């Protein structure tokens, strides 16, 4: 392995160097993300209205577009120390294998039992629920990483945790389900007959494998109907991006320590939380006119919300029980083909990421499933880590960019988010290894069906 003077294979910050504040990129955005709207009145959701669904302090964070830095409570910092700081790895082996002059770094968030970055927000949301004296929380999970993370956080703090798990994942990933139950969570496959909305969806789409949108509706309905419970969400919301800014803050601190300036920053995008978190401090510099970076969001070709979606107000869920968010969306009725990156099968996108993309401050690419698994396998064989299918979307584009550098001879510095590990995704890897994996790309006519269901909101 050829190493560069002074730059280790892994850059670890010391515990004392860990960021003690989250960075709120909204404070530096000229065009703020549009407010969540009450679907009944079409007026911005008030703190009081949001408080019926979410914990009070999280509502404050959701609505705060102005405070740039928010202190991370000591209890959360203590929990973070169990698995953070996470390493920033210089992918020397991959560079050598690709024979590229590019310098590739990845921020590895899979080094905890939940196996992904989701724990960064799970502990924060569980902490505020506990502080408010609640009994428990409800949520949805797609791939299972968020549900696992929340189960861990709730177990640590002694909170009850009800997880609605997208049915296809519940069936394909029994081990992840059991991890959640081991940490004390109740796990229900969605759509289920435990909620009115679940029954309705089952009646309209018998045999459906579910989607994140359906599971969100069920989790919200349960939280609202249960004394002492609130709903928590693992992505999309402003508050989640805020918590995930720890990824970007650590990445920046590690790069700064060695005087490294990235040219390209890449993240996979499901609801936008890891990407939003990773890019936050860099985007802040870009927004303030201090630096410029090429920022790329990567999504599956089967669920292309940024690259083929519409920037419009839409429901965050299939049952249309949530507030309306202005975002890039395929329509809340859109149910993507059951591809193997469950965490990226979401019809919408974070309003913050959507606004930044709309304003031309970042780009988006969509990639096909088989090429993602080719990249995942190449990465696993050379860098050792078995990546989650979601994370492998970022690997795909990082490799593509490094190969472009090989053509041009440019020595670009590429940083990408390696959000998690794929140990529970072996059925997907099996399909790939057997040559049975397909690429399902919706036609324009397929997408039109989803767009038709978009609510008609007059432009202000
Ligand atoms: C490993 C992993 N990466 C990425 C994602 C995508 O989510 P987000 O876009 O919110 O980071 C998920 C979601 O479940 C995930 O499990």
UniProtKB/TrEMBL annotation:
Keyword terms of this UniProt record: Amino-acid biosynthesis, Aromatic amino acid biosynthesis, Lyase, Pyridoxal phosphate, Tryptophan biosynthesis
Entry annotated with the keyword Amino-acid biosynthesis: yes
Cofactor: pyridoxal 5'-phosphate
This protein's record includes keyword Lyase: yes
InterPro entries: Trp_synth_b-like, Trp_synth_beta/beta-like, TrpB-like_PALP, TrpB-like_PALP_sf
Domain of life: Bacteria
Tryptophan synthase beta chain-like PALP domain residues: 83-420
Pfam families the UniProt entry points to: PALP
GO molecular function, one term: L-serine hydro-lyase (adding indole, L-tryptophan-forming) activity
GO cellular component: cytoplasm
Enzyme class: lyase
Positions where N6-(pyridoxal phosphate)lysine occurs in the chain: 118
Catalysed reaction equations from the record: (1S,2R)-1-C-(indol-3-yl)glycerol 3-phosphate + L-serine = D-glyceraldehyde 3-phosphate + L-tryptophan + H2O
EC number: 4.2.1.20
Function: The beta subunit is responsible for the synthesis of L-tryptophan from indole and L-serine.
Quaternary data: Tetramer of two alpha and two beta chains.
Homology family: Belongs to the TrpB family.
Protein name: Tryptophan synthase beta chain
């Amino acid at each position: 392995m050829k190493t560069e003077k002074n730059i280790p294979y892994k850059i670890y910050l010391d515990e004392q160097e860990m960021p003690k504040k989250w960075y709120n990129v909204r404070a530096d955005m000229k065009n703020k993300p549009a407010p969540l709207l009450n679907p009944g009145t079409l007026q911005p959701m008030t703190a009081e209205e949001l408080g019926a669904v979410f914990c009070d302090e999280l509502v404050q964070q959701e609505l705060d577009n102005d405070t740039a830095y928010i202190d991370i409570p000591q209890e959360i910092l203590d929990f973070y120390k169990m698995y953070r700081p996470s390493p920033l790895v210089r992918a020397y082996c991959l560079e050598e294998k690709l024979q590229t002059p590019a310098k590739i770094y990845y921020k590895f968030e899979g080094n905890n039992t939940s196996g992904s970055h989701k724990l960064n927000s799970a502990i924060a949301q569980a902490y505020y629920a506990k502080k408010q004296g609640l009994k428990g929380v409800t949520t949805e999970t797609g791939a299972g990483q968020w549900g696992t993370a929340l189960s861990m956080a709730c177990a640590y703090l002694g909170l009850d945790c009800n997880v609605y798990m997208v049915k296809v994942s519940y069936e394909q990933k029994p081990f992840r389900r059991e991890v959640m139950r081991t940490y004390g969570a109740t796990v229900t496959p969605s759509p289920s007959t435990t909620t009115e909305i679940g029954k309705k969806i089952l009646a309209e789409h018998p045999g459906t494998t579910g989607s994140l949108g359906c599971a969100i509706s069920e989790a919200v309905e349960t939280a609202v109907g249960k004394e002492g419970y609130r709903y928590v969400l693992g992505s999309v919301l402003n508050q989640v991006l805020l918590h995930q800014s720890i990824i970007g803050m650590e990445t920046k601190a590690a790069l700064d320590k060695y005087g490294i300036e990235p040219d390209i920053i890449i993240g996979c995008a499901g609801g936008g939380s890891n990407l939003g978190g990773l890019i936050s401090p860099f985007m802040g510099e870009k927004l303030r006119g201090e630096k410029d970076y090429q920022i790329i969001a990567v999504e599956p070709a089967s669920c292309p919300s940024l690259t083929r979606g519409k920037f419009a107000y839409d429901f965050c869920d299939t049952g249309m029980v949530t507030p309306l968010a202005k975002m890039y969306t395929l329509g809340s009725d859109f149910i993507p083909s059951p591809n193997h990156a469950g965490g990226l099968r979401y019809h919408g996108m974070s309003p913050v990421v959507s606004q930044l993309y709309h304003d031309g401050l970042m780009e988006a690419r969509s990639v096909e499933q088989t090429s993602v698994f080719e990249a995942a396998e190449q990465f696993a064989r050379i860098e050792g880590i078995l990546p989650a299918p979601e994370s492998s979307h970022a690997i795909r584009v990082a490799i593509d960019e490094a190969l472009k550098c090989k053509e041009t001879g440019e020595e670009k510095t590429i940083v990408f988010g390696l959000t998690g590990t794929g140990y529970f995704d072996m059925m997907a890897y099996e399909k790939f290894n057997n040559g049975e994996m397909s690429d399902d790309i919706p036609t324009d006519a397929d997408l039109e069906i989803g767009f038709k269901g978009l609510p008609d909101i007059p432009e202000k």
